[in-house]
Write a structure and sequence with these properties.
alpha+beta; 2 domains; three-stranded antiparallel beta sheet; 3 helices; 7 strands; 22% strand; membrane; transmembrane helix; Ig-like_fold
Length: 227
C-alpha cells in the first residue's frame, strides 16, 4: 500500500525521471500520434499519390514527405529525398520516381518540439514507427510501352485534326448557304424593281398615245371648216 502518491516516482524514460508516476496524466504517458493513417494510391511507373489523416493537434506546423529506394527485404539503398509542405494539405502527388522500384515513403508531422534525429531515424535501416511519422512501403509499376504511348498521342492528334476539319467544313457550309441566300434575295429584289419600272413605262406610253388620239380627233379634217 502506497501512503503517499508522490513517493512512487519514475526512473525511465528520462523525460519523466523523478516525477510522481501516479500524478502523470494519460496524455503524457500515451500521447496521440501526429499521423494516424497513411495510404499510397494511384501508383504509376514514375509517380504516386499519398493521402494521410492527421490528428487534430494545433501544434502541427507543416509536413515533410521523405522517400528512399529500398531493396526487396526493405533495406534502404538510395539517397534520402524530401518534400516540404504546409499544414493545409493532407495529400500529395509524389513524382520523379523510377519504374519497377521499391520505396520507403514517410510523412512526418512537424511541430516546434520535433526532434531532428527522429526525422532521419526512419531511413537508416528498416521501418521503425514513432509518434510524429507514418511510413509505407510501395513499389512503382512497369513503364508504359513506347508503342502504346505513341498510339495514344497519335489518336489525340487525329482527334484534334478531325475536330478542326469538321469545324472549318461546317463554317464553310454555313457561310456558303448564307451567301446563296443573300444572292437569291438580291436577284429577287432586282427582278421586282425591273418589273415595276416596265409597268410604269407602259402606262405612260398609253397615256401619251391617248392624248395624241384625242388631239387628232379634235383637229378639222380635210374639206371641213372649223365652226
Amino acid at each position: 500500500m502506497v501512503p503517499d502518491l508522490r513517493t512512487l516516482k519514475c526512473h525511465l524514460p528520462e523525460a519523466f525521471s523523478g516525477q510522481p508516476f501516479l500524478m502523470l496524466s494519460s496524455g503524457m504517458l500515451c500521447p496521440q500520434p501526429l499521423i494516424l493513417q497513411l495510404d499510397a494510391q494511384g501508383i504509376q511507373s514514375q509517380s504516386l499519390v499519398l493521402k494521410w489523416h492527421a490528428s487534430n493537434q494545433s501544434s502541427i506546423q507543416g509536413y515533410k514527405v521523405s522517400f528512399r529506394e529500398t531493396s526487396e527485404d526493405g533495406q534502404v539503398v538510395g539517397g534520402l529525398k524530401t518534400r516540404s509542405l504546409t499544414s493545409s494539405p493532407t495529400n500529395y502527388r509524389l513524382t520523379g520516381l523510377r519504374p519497377r522500384t521499391s520505396y520507403l515513403v514517410c510523412v512526418h508531422g512537424l511541430t516546434t518540439s520535433a526532434s531532428p534525429s527522429a526525422f532521419h531515424h526512419h531511413h537508416t535501416t528498416q521501418y521503425a514507427p514513432d509518434l510524429s511519422s507514418k511510413c509505407v512501403q510501395v513499389k512503382t509499376d512497369e513503364p508504359i510501352p513506347a508503342k502504346i504511348e505513341l498510339s495514344n498521342r497519335l489518336a489525340i492528334m487525329i482527334g484534334v485534326s478531325l475536330g478542326i476539319a469538321i469545324f472549318f467544313i461546317a463554317g464553310t457550309i454555313i457561310c456558303c448557304r448564307q451567301m446563296c441566300k443573300d444572292r437569291r434575295e438580291a436577284a429577287k429584289a432586282k427582278l421586282e424593281s425591273n418589273a415595276g419600272g416596265q409597268n410604269y413605262h407602259s402606262y405612260r406610253q398609253f397615256s401619251v398615245q391617248d392624248n395624241n388620239d384625242a388631239a387628232a380627233d379634235s383637229a378639222p379634217k380635210e374639206g371641213q371648216t372649223e365652226c
